[in-house]
Amino acid sequence: MARKPLPLKMLQTLEAVVRLDGVSNAAKELGVTHGAVSRQIALLEDWLGRALFERDRGRLRPLDETRQFVAVVTDCFERMDAALGRVKTARRRLKVFAHASFAMYWLVPRLEQFYAQNPDVDVHVQTRQTGEDPASSFFDVAIMRGAEQIGNWEGSPVLQESLTLLTTRDRAVSLAARGAAALMGETFAVSDTRPGEIERWLEIAGLPPLQKWRERRFGHFHTAIMAVLNGQGITVGPIELTGGKVAAEGLLAAPFPQIVAAGPRHIAYIDPQSESYPIAKRFVLWLRDEAGAI
Hints:
The chain has 294 residues and is α/β, with parallel strands linked by helices. It has helices at 8-20, 23-30, 34-48, 64-89, 100-107, 111-117, 169-178, 197-205, 221-229, 239-249, 277-291, and strands at residues 53-56, 59-62, 92-99, 121-128, 141-145, 154-168, 187-191, 214-218, 235-238, 252-253, 261-270.
């Protein structure tokens, strides 16, 4: 059964008149004229089909049942005001959709910095595997790699990858001392999700094509990285995504950081028509600041 709309403006006026003991005081609090308050009371009495006050030479005296009713209205208004305050100060959730490697190696390690600047926001990171259709999930921000796009959404470049050789720190020290030619005989950990990147780096390094090397293939880049960390070969990957492990944990290292191939670009997409646009835009601007706007 449909709920009948409540005359909230009339009820607000009635509550003020009874609580403040008079039309003049109510008009002052509500910021309206004496006549406007009187009209709202008359409209409410007409809406209810009964009088709410005794008239005594222009003065309104609320009936007993009116006072009882207004006590309920006052309580409701106070509870509504408290609830509105909770809604206003509640943390807002922002759902971010990103490739697993970007989320794991770049975004998540930096999120505490975003929270420090935006304590009113909770970021829900949903990872995406290459080839997964982003349209199958709801999100506020989609961080895509390469030429991928999201319809007519607003796109902002966030990060430009630079590809270099990666291996364990101890292995990197040995390779760096002997030069790139010492790589011959190594095994490459190749990921299906980043095709062509090892080949591109080998070409820039002046080394034989990938077909001349031993390979171990993995479905995803983060799996290939795990293989490298466990001594199962070397790989090529983006400095920007693995820098946290290189610098902070000392697990990965780049033996030839001067040999770099251009990698794909990451672009953050947001829907300009969405209610979440203002907060999503704030998040994207933070991403750009963290990456260094390109």
